[in-house]
Design brief:
By secondary structure, the protein is α/β, with parallel strands linked by helices. The protein has helices at about 15-25, 40-50, 85-105, 120-125, 130-140, 165-170, 175-190, 215-230, 240-250, 260-270, 305-320; strands spanning about 5-10, 35-40, 55-60, 70, 110-115, 145-150, 155-160, 195-200, 235-240, 255-260, 275-280, 285-290.
Length: about 325
């Protein structure tokens, strides 16, 4: 089987993105061809502060050889300062994503791995999106995408993410859970899991203790689980959130449905903070990312840890062998 080509975007040039990209490339033993979309001058500075030498090849299409390949956009003033939020860096980081997405849509690469960007820099640059997912959806013409976290064998989906806890609780409804559960099954199948085993995390302590600690399990979550099982899916729960993630990490389930942001984030990051990977599903291509930000406070010092970027590349290479989004499901 031919190796997939992965486009690695450099992220915000003033952040740790360039450093974790060059460190990932220097450690590359993944069965995929890395193609970095970024700026050669910035990457050279990142190599110097990291004490790394990378022998780049110019990216040409169709791709030949094993790389590492560099698609140099030349969109950064070489006198920039690390660790500063500027519109120039926001614009540059957007252009890396834009070019990588075009390559993916043209089938020149089989997946995208994105280094961190900064929301404020995007805003200052006049980019009307809050983050990667929104940018990728717009460029791909997709109405909705789901986020899955993966660390080791643990996969976690999120019913809600960027809502207050009060708002998140208000969104725990049977209809929403059933609809989301069906999407989970679809995407897990696209990742090569033919009969996904899904566990639903409880909202309240002890899964509500039969209503003593809350009635959401009785009135919304259990009815949703029963409906999903009625439709033929292997969905079970709700299980207390203080144990379900552990049992899923031991292989008892293929994925966990987390009901709100921190419920799933805490579980994955406590398991392995540096190797937690964010996977975006629902795009016409696989996209992964390290689960951390631009870390401006340490940018340019060569001390940024690259494990999450490397793991994101490994996960993307694996899923690129399976993931093909059917056109009729683009807005699912």
């Amino acid at each position: 089987m031919l190796k997939p080509v992965l486009a690695l975007t450099m992220g915000d040039p003033a952040g740790v993105g360039p450093e974790i990209v060059v460190k990932t490339i220097a450690s590359w033993d993944i069965e995929a061809i890395p193609l970095v979309v970024g700026d050669g001058g910035v990457l050279e500075r990142a190599q110097k502060v990291s004490g790394i030498t990378v022998h780049w090849q110019e990216a040409r299409f169709p791709v030949q050889g094993d790389g590492p390949l560099l698609l140099h956009l030349g969109n950064v003033d070489p006198s920039f300062s690390f660790g500063k939020i500027t519109p120039e860096m926001g614009r540059a980081s957007y252009e890396y994503i834009e070019r990588a997405t075009m390559l993916a849509l043209e089938k020149k690469v089989q997946g995208i791995v994105t280094a961190p960007i900064n929301k404020e820099a995007l805003y200052q640059a006049g980019i009307p999106f809050i983050g990667h997912t929104e940018i990728l959806q717009s460029l791909s013409g997709v109405d909705q995408a789901l986020t899955m976290f993966q660390v080791g064998t643990l996969r976690v989906f999120f019913l809600t993410r960027h809502l207050s806890l009060k708002e998140a609780i208000e969104n725990v409804k049977k209809e929403a859970l059933v609809s989301f559960g069906e999407k989970m099954v679809l995407y897990l199948r696209l990742l090569g899991i033919s009969v996904p085993r899904i566990a639903v995390a409880a909202l309240n302590p002890h899964a509500g203790e039969g209503g003593l600690l809350g009635r959401e399990e009785i009135e919304e979550i259990m009815p949703a689980v029963k409906e999903l099982r009625k439709r033929g899916y292997q969905v079970s729960g709700p299980y207390p959130a203080d144990s379900v993630f552990f049992f899923a990490s031991q292989g008892n389930f293929d994925a966990v449905l987390s009901l709100y942001h921190d419920q799933g984030h805490i579980a994955t990051k406590c398991l392995d903070f540096y190797r937690t990977v964010s996977v975006t599903l629902g795009l016409p291509f696989i996209r992964t990312a390290p689960d951390h930000g631009t870390a401006f406070d340490i940018a340019g010092r060569g001390i940024a840890r690259y494990e999450s970027m490397y793991e994101a590349s490994r996960v993307a290479a694996h899923y690129a062998l399976f993931y093909t989004l059917p056109l009729q499901n683009k807005a699912s």
